[in-house]
């Protein structure tokens, strides 16, 4: 493997870089009219995610259009519960819906854990096609949801501000929750290893709902499973992004991962002090991109100064919002690249 631009991978491994690499979460998506055109052709988000050619096309778009230093495979964290036997729908303007959820020991027992990479072969094929299309210009990021975040959707069945149904299981049936988390973890490891074999150069684990747990629950129900994933994926660097888990930064900093993702609530200096040995990624508030070009430049430069040049990957603190002007995203990217 000889990547023309390997800044992301060198920064992830803690090696010296000439400049800070930059990409944005949700860069392949509704901000781009080129994405919306392909999405239209596919008919639905799920059809698009399940068509390797089209998924590869929209994965590469932000590399061509925005000039980012990495591609992230176009898919969703919810393909894992689907492969385990819980199909989902994506309801326009509302988000995901699982008609069938996990509530009992029998439900956990019935979940499929075998041959997961065959069930998810469309993602693996999309990764292979993307690697071809990228022609080694930039690294390709693979990903999966963290076990706790996946449990949230499998138990609750849809998005929620509190995920109180899912959290209820942690309190009332902790053994059932642990059995479910272990199954998700086993499947996720097999899936991520298949992504790496197909060419993913770095793996990001999204724990999007980490912030709803107490520190004690995060230590008990999230950390041990993320650690199993970090230990199992030893072929490529791993990034752990636990949105909202400012209270767990020290513990996350001790995981067997190379990079820790930060959201905008997390102070940069404080995070460096709590996570002294790892590369950090983040953490501009995506709402900054609603500002003027000069505001974006100012905020981005302040962030770059605070993180410093080494052991750092510039990104937003969460996914870019769909109504963001792509020119503003470009401004963010170019400000990092010319700093
Ligand atoms: O560019 C990229 O970052 C790669 C693509 C990507 C998607 N989802 C595509 C998507 C990634 C990395 C994800 C991860 C994901 N999916 C997460 C973790 C990251 C995070 O945001 O915290 C979560 C929680 C999900 C679950 C999910 N998928 C929800 C709640 C929704 C509905 C809300 C929304 O944004 O519409 C989705 C749908 C989804 N996933 C879309 C895209 C582009 C929008 C669907 C569409 O185009 O109609």
Quick overview:
Strands 1-4-5-6-7-8-9 form a 7-stranded parallel β-sheet. The protein has helices at 7-12, 33-42, 45-49, 52-65, 79-83, 105-110, 116-119, 121-134, 147-156, 164-172, 174-198, 215-232, 249-252, 268-274, 293-307, 326-337; strands at residues 71-72, 89-91, 95-97, 140-145, 202-207, 238-242, 259-261, 279-284, 312-316.
Write a structural description:
By secondary structure, the chain is of the alpha/beta class. The chain has a single domain (7-338), classed as TIM Barrel, CATH 3.20.20. The protein has helices at residues 7-12, 33-42, 45-49, 52-65, 79-83, 105-110, 116-119, 121-134, 147-156, 164-172, 174-198, 215-232, 249-252, 268-274, 293-307, 326-337; strands at 71-72, 89-91, 95-97, 140-145, 202-207, 238-242, 259-261, 279-284, 312-316. A seven-stranded parallel β-sheet has the order 1-4-5-6-7-8-9. A two-stranded antiparallel ribbon has the order 2-3. Helix 12 links the parallel strand 5 (202-207) and strand 6. The longest helix has 25 residues, at 174-198. The model has no long low-confidence stretch (mean pLDDT 98). Coproporphyrinogen III binds at residues 25-30, 39, 45, 72, 74, 76-78, 90, 95-96, 143, 159, 206, 208, 243, 319.
Hey, roughly how much beta strand do the residues contain? 5-15%
Number of domains in the coordinates? 1
Bound compounds, each kind once, are: coproporphyrinogen III
Strand order of the largest sheet: 1-4-5-6-7-8-9
For the record, give the distance between the C-alpha atoms at the N and C termini, rounded to a whole number: 28 Å
The largest β sheet comes out as: 7 strands, parallel
Going by CATH, the architecture would be Alpha-Beta Barrel
Note poorly predicted spans: none
How many DSSP E strands? 9
State the helicity in percent bands: 40-55%
Give the class from helix and strand content and strand pairing.
alpha/beta
CATH topology assignment: TIM Barrel
| N-to-C SSE string, H for helix and E for strand | HHHHEHEEHHHEHHHEHEHEHEHEH
Radius of gyration: 19 Å
